[in-house]
Design brief:
Blueprint lengths: L2 E5 L9 H9 L5 E5 H4 L7 H9 L3 E7 L7 H10 L17 E7 L17 H4 L1 H10 L2 E2 L3 E3 L7 H16 L6
Parallel strand pairs: 1-2, 1-3, 3-4, 4-5, 4-6
Helix pairs in contact: 1-7
Length: 177
């Protein structure tokens, strides 16, 4: 299985979690790591190139830090520009059908804040529903997200362990049977 990880972190140099994840991902030959902010610092997305990349992979992962209950802006722009009518959706838009889609999300806050009664009032599953709706529209199989909470308070060992767990998670088909 070929896995494409589309990383959207606007300040990866200062990231601890996402940069650790990237280093671990790059150790695996069947994972393509594609960093949007490095590829498109001017935000001029090469739509054909992005579509071809998606077509060449079986499983697509959108990796990002959770920003204002969504993704960083370049990933949103990528979704708007790459997932075109006639390619990703619509009567002839079937290029992503039957591919798998996973979200890999990091948050600064503790897991307890993302639940009913918690500070944010909603679970991560609820907050990620717009991405699931997108998956439904484009015909991908939406798989459970990999979420790492507590980036602000985690130590180096916890983050390293999360990177290994993340790679195992996105490479394993056993997790999704």
């Amino acid at each position: 299985m070929k896995v494409l990880v589309i990383v959207a972190h606007p300040n990866i140099e200062k990231s601890v979690v996402n940069s650790t994840w990237i280093r671990e991902l790059k150790k695996h030959p069947n994972i393509t790591v594609h960093e949007l902010y490095k590829q498109y610092p001017d935000e001029n997305i090469d739509i054909e190139r992005e579509q071809k990349l998606c077509e060449e992979h079986d499983r697509i992962v959108w990796q990002f830090p959770f920003y204002w209950y969504s993704s960083p802006p370049l990933l949103k722009k990528w979704l708007d520009e790459v997932l075109t009518h006639g390619w990703a959706y619509g009567s002839n838009g079937n290029k992503l059908h039957n591919k798998e889609l996973i979200l890999a999300v990091s948050t600064g806050s503790a897991k307890e804040r993302y639940q009913a009664g918690g500070r944010n009032q909603y679970s991560m599953s609820e907050l990620l529903k717009p991405f699931q709706a997108t998956s439904n529209l484009i015909g991908t199989r939406f798989l459970p997200a990999f979420v790492f909470n507590g980036a602000y308070t985690s130590d180096e060992e916890e983050i390293k362990e999360s990177a290994e767990a993340y790679v195992n998670y996105i490479l394993s088909s056993d997790n999704f049977e």
